[in-house]
Please model this.
Amino acid sequence: MAKSTYRKVSGDSFPLEIRLSLDEQNLVYRKQFFGSEGQEPQGLRYGENPGQEAALYRLTSGQPALGRTSYAGSQKALLSALGEPGRMSGGQKHPSMTNFTDLDAALNLLRWLTKPAAVIIKHNNPSGAAQCSKISEAFRKAYRGDQLSAFGGVVVFNRPVDLETVALMDELFVEVVAAPDYEAGTVAALNKKPDIRVFKIPNMDKLNGLERTIQIKSLIDGGLILHQSLVNAIKAPSDFQPAEIEYQGRTYKAVRTPTPQEYDDLIFGWAVICAVSSNSVVAVKNEATLAIGGGQQSRLGVVQLAINKAYQNFCQLRSQELHQKPFWQMARGPEPALVQAIEAEAKNCRAGLKGASLVSDGFFPFRDSVLEAMGEGITAFAHPGGSILDWDSIEAVNHHQPPAAMVFTGQRAFKH
Model:
């Protein structure tokens, strides 16, 4: 496929307006167009792939409500408002459907965070995320969470972007940067990057209070499934439940509760996992992701994937820091001793996983996943609970030396 295919704006046959009747409500949606200064506004570049038409619509009239629940309306439009004049702040390339699904995944994560945070999304999943006191440091940590996967990703911030943060992005090829605002000179600096789109997202100050939405999924035969969006139930340590279960007349309970730092990491990790395709686990340390594993068919498989990614990322970071080369180049180079030294360092510190916390979007059906994680230094776990074998995982953390902490969320966070 020629590279020009990805640059072409194919156009679409979708109407300017869509009307949807929901119970007795009439909802009106208007097609959005995009363009930077000096560009003719056009619709989306293409859908999931070149050759697939797509269009973005914004709800302009009506307030969705079903039963006693009201859903997000037009007054708090975020991504769907980006086609309005001035919303595309920079860049010379029109956005595609996948740019918007990636942006949506980022906002679905950022809506649960209150500190300055940065999220890097790739193929509708976070590759790295972090929050701390400075937006530049949040980006640095998020990028270090998986440098390889961040290439060509979408970077979204919940605070204004400053020049220090832009400078840290200098070595990274990104498709989209989005934020609530940009300090003087930042957009001009970002526009020097090839093929970038820069968006100023409205209403991000209302993101944390955004209502639920009605999500629509289409089936192969044109049928529709309507469902409510997920609401994150874990905002504070008190929202967790003790890891406790009664089994065959005996009560099993985790003997250790998380430390304050582990609680912070577990809360942050649960926010991240709400944006990861299931099955998934997230390893977190100091409110930054160390490894994200998602989209696997087994719980053990996704834990092993996350651990493997943590080791790969550690080796990549050390190779760049010590030798200014990607680790894959080092591994194929003439100095195997240098490669072995990096691998030995990774093994010695367990790729940074010592003292990290692990969050799982579903329960652990067997103790194998917990044992695998503790073998790499994981010290705290959060998962929904609800397995008939929860007692076995609780016993595993209790018998580990020293014991690991475990809590339940009481909520599953699958995303399909």
Observations:
- The radius of gyration is 23 Å.
- Residues 15-209 form a domain with the Cytidine Deaminase; domain 2 fold (CATH 3.40.140.20).
- The chain has a mean pLDDT of 92.
- The longest strand covers residues 25-31.
